[in-house]
Every structure is written in C-alpha cells, then in structure tokens.
Amino acid sequence: MREFLLIFRNSDTSHPAPSPEQLQERLNWMAGIAAQNKLVDKGNRLSGSIAKTVRPDDVVTDGPYTEIKEFILGYVIVKTATIEEAVDIAQKNPILKMGGNIEVRAILTPEEKG
Amino acid sequence: MEDPVAQHHPLLPHLFRQEYVKMTAVLSRHFGLQNIEIAEDIVSDTFLKATELWSSQGIPPNPTAWLYTVAKNSTKDYLKRHTLFETQIKTALGTGELQAEQEVDFTLQTITDSQLAMIFAVCNPANSTEAQICLALQILCGFSVEEIAAAFLSKTETIKKRLARARANLRNDNFQIRQLQAETIQSRLDTVLRTIYLLFNEGYASSSGNHLIRKDLCSEAMRLALILTENKLTSTAKANALLALICFQSSRLDAREDHTGEAVLFEQQDKHLWSRELIEKGNYYLINACSGNEVSKYHLEAAIAYWHTTPTDDNKWEHILQLYNQLVILEYSPITALNRTFAFARVYGKTQGIQEAEKLTLEDINYYHSLLGYLYTGIDTGKAIKHYQKAVTLTKSVSEKKTLTKEIERLMLTP
C-alpha cells in the first residue's frame, strides 16, 4: 500500500455553494473510500480569495498563481496498492463533471527518490 | 448468589450487587485505592453478616441502612485493629496513616462522588481495553468472576488472571481517588467513555452469551453514563451523546427477542414494544449533546439510532446514509463500512449497493456475506444463496444461523 495525494483543480476559484445533491455526491465519494479503509486524510478545501503568493525580493501578490488558468481547490490523501487504483478512485469524483481535473501524485517516503 | 436468604427474596441479589458497588467505592475512597482489597473485605464481611442474620431473624425494615451501619462498624473495628498496628510499628517508619478518626460517610453525595471517582480509577490506560472492561464489571458493576466469564465466553481462570494483573496495575498507578481533579477528568474522560461504550456494545451487539447477563451489561453501562451526566465536570457533549445512544438502543432491547429468546429482525419488530420512555430520554440527552459544535462518533451513532426509532418515510435512509458517511470518514471499522453500505443500498438501490459492497473485500466477516446475500436477493438468486451459505459457516451465533438457513431455504424454493 502506498499513499497518493489527489489534488483537485478547477478554473473557477470561487466555491459556488454546492447543491444538496452535489454535497451528498461528494460525501458519498469520500465515504466510499473510507469504507474501503483507504482514506488517509480527508484533506481540506482551499480558499481562492484569502490567498497570497510569495515570490523572491519581497514580492507578494494576491491570490494564487495568476498565470495559470487553474486553481487548486482542495486535496485528499488515499492509500492504495497501485497508482491505477488511486486513479480509479479519482475518476469517480464529481469535480470531473464540472470541468475540473485531479492530479494524482505518489507521496514519497524519506528514503525514496522521486 | 446461592445463599438461602437470597433464594427466598428474589430482590436480594440485586440489592447486594448494587450496594456492594456503592460501599466498595465509598470505602476505597476512604482508604485509598491501593487498599481496595481492605474495602472489599469489609463489604464482603458485611454481606456475610447480613446473610447469616437475615436468614434467622428476617430482613430488617430498611436493609440498605442496616448494611451501611454494619459496614461503618466493621470499618471502625478494622481501623481500631489497624491503628494499633500503625502506632506500634509503622509510626517509627513515618509512613502514611489511615484516617481512624474520620467516620465513613454513606450520604448520597459521597456515594455518587465515590462512584464517579471509581469510574475514573478503573478506566486506567495502564490496562488493556479488555482488562478495563473486566475490572469495570467487577468493581463498578459488582459482577462475579463467573458472570464476567459468561459474558466474555471465557474460562473463569482466564478472567481471574486478567483481573489480578489489572488490579496490580491499578495499585501501582497511585491514582488519587479522593479528590477528582479537573485535569484528570479531561485526560481520562475519553477512555472512560470508550470503556462504557464497549461495555454497552458487549451487551447489546454481541451475538453470544447469556442474554440476561447481556441485558445487565446494557443497564450497567447506562447507569455509569448517567453518573457522568449528573456531574458538572463530566457532563460533556460526548458523555451526553453516549448516553443518548445507549437510551435509543436500549429502547429496543425487549423487542429484539421473542418469547423463546430468538432474535427478531429490526424490520419485523413490534414497535409497540419499543420503550417510549427511553426514546424520550434519548432525545433529551441528544439535545444536551448538541449544545456545542462537537461532532463525535457518539453523536453520529446516537443520531443514527435516533432515526431508527422514527417511522420510515421518504428521507429516513438518506439521513442515515449521510450520518454513516460521516461516521466512516471519522473512524473506520468494518462494521461501520458494512452498515454504511446497507444504508447506501437503501437509498440508491441494490445494484449500486452491490458495487459498493464488493469493493469492501471483507470476506472473513459473516455480516459482509449476509449483506451481499440480501443485496443479491431478487437479482441473482444463485449468488444470494452462496453468500448466505458462507455467512452461515462464519457466524458463531446460533439464532443467526437459524435465520440465515431459513432465508436460504426460502430462496431455494424461489423459481
């Protein structure tokens, strides 16, 4: 078993108030992972408005990277045997239906090389 | 208890057990926890005297008061003897003294305080969870070693050894029972709640063992949780949620078994047998539990139990599913995962339920197979039978075996 970070991205930074159905769908998705005992960290949602980016030479700008069109909205950590299985889990997340995408990244142990 | 007095007066064993617990708590507080054996000796002695005297002279008008007076006197006698020893030998060493002057006080307040302190003393993280439950049953609930062994389906010898080790750990821990400090309460309350929760589950959920003893376990768990909610320091949101859970579940205890002692499935239970009083108590404590923002697993389980006490309407299972979703995210357990999947199937149908269930891969658990048996019923009879058969080989409960076998026979006859 190894841990994977799922990073949720969408072009829309605001978290539009989800409908009860959407909320339930999200919760069902996460509980389905937890029911398989594969949820390591339910993660958090990230604010799009209370955000700064810090750069060298005392440059601090508002918001996340403005150069790119997508913003990180949140993350979840799962524990699966293979990356394919983690991808499988990600594919069922409702964010894909709303134009978002999910990046799946293995979390390295201190000894591992990337 | 098999003494003649008890046989003639069916209420006596109950009285003895109740008073045994209270007196031991008060005296242990008086002597200090490291001297719990002295306290137990005095109490046992008191009951011996009571049995002897009551069988020849009859039961006094106020047996409880009688017991307390005798216990007080026995304590005085003990201390007199002990003081002699203390003054002559031990003073030279300058070690601790027992309070000989102070009379033991059996007022209601002292009894309550002592029992609360005793709960915190027994739920000591130095002991394993199992050992804590055994100790709780013996010291807090007055169960005999035989009764504990029956509840756990263990040998008496095993329980004896476990108790002896656990008691040694208690003595070495130097836990102060006289004055319960706020910090102690803070740091131990979670352990206390978990022990009471497991004690209740042992009685409520275990499918084996003597069912009278199991019922006792449930009511004892309720009594202990009640003591917690009656004290300002321990009446936390979680404690109230736990008590609410216990009340809701207990409301169905009588409906769960028919007159032959066989299990009655939830959906077939006569709802008139559910205790209205306990459901209302559950509501009361659940409201108390929701005064803050805290959502513990006891809150979620109590809320699920609450929904089970309500009539089935369109949204009932959606609420239950939401709660199970939160519960399984908060704390995984195979049973929670399976219950959550059952609720999921109730909301989204059996086909989706099967997909969700088969991901769980809990092949060694009988409930996994009975769940799949249920889900495949009406969809794939062959698979349903296969899963039910697997469940029969895995379950240890006789009544569950019977229920499952009946279901298999019914399915075999279905064309």
Write the layout of secondary structure elements.
The complex is a heterodimer of chains A (114) and B (415).
Chain A: E1 2-10, H1 20-35, E2 39-45, E3 52-55, E4 59-62, E5 71-80, H2 83-91, E6 101-106
Antiparallel strand pairs in A: 1-5, 1-6, 2-5, 3-4
Chain B: H1 4-8, H2 12-31, H3 36-57, H4 63-90, H5 108-122, H6 129-140, H7 145-152, H8 156-173, H9 182-204, H10 211-229, H11 237-250, H12 276-289, H13 297-308, H14 316-330, H15 334-348, H16 350-358, H17 366-376, H18 381-394, H19 398-413
Domain YCII-related (chain A): 19-107
InterPro entries (chain A): Dimeric_a/b-barrel, YCII
Protein name (chain A): Transcription initiation protein
Short account of what is shown:
The complex is a heterodimer of chains A (114) and B (415). By secondary structure, chain A is of the alpha+beta class.
Overall form of chain B:
elongated
The ordered H/E elements of chain A are EHEEEEHE
How much of the polypeptide of chain B forms β-strand, as a percent range? under 5%
Strand-pairing-aware structural class of chain A: alpha+beta
Give start-end ranges of low-pLDDT stretches of chain A.
none
Query: The biggest beta sheet of chain A, please?
Result: 4 strands, antiparallel
Counting DSSP H or I runs of 4 or more residues, the number of helices of chain B is 19
Percent helix of chain A, as a range, is: 10-25%
Which superfamily, in CATH terms, is the homologous superfamily of chain A?
Answer: Dimeric alpha+beta barrel
Number of strands of chain A: 6
β-strand percent of chain A reads 35-45%
Give a written overview of the molecule.
The complex is a heterodimer of chains A (114) and B (415). Chain A has two helices and six strands; from the N terminus they run E-H-E-E-E-E-H-E. With 114 residues, chain A is an alpha+beta fold. Chain A has one domain (2-106): 2-Layer Sandwich (Alpha-Beta Plaits). In chain A, a hairpin with a 3-residue loop joins strand 3 and strand 4. Chain B has 415 residues and is mostly helical. Chain B has a domain at 1-106. Chain B has 19 helices and no strands. In chain B, helix 2 packs antiparallel against helix 3, helix 2 packs parallel to helix 4 and helix 13 runs antiparallel to helix 14 (316-330). The termini of chain B are far apart. Chain A binds chain B through residues 24, 27-28, 30-32, 34-37, 39, 42, and chain B through 318, 321-322, 324-326, 328-329, 332, 336-337, 340-341, 344, 356, 359-361.
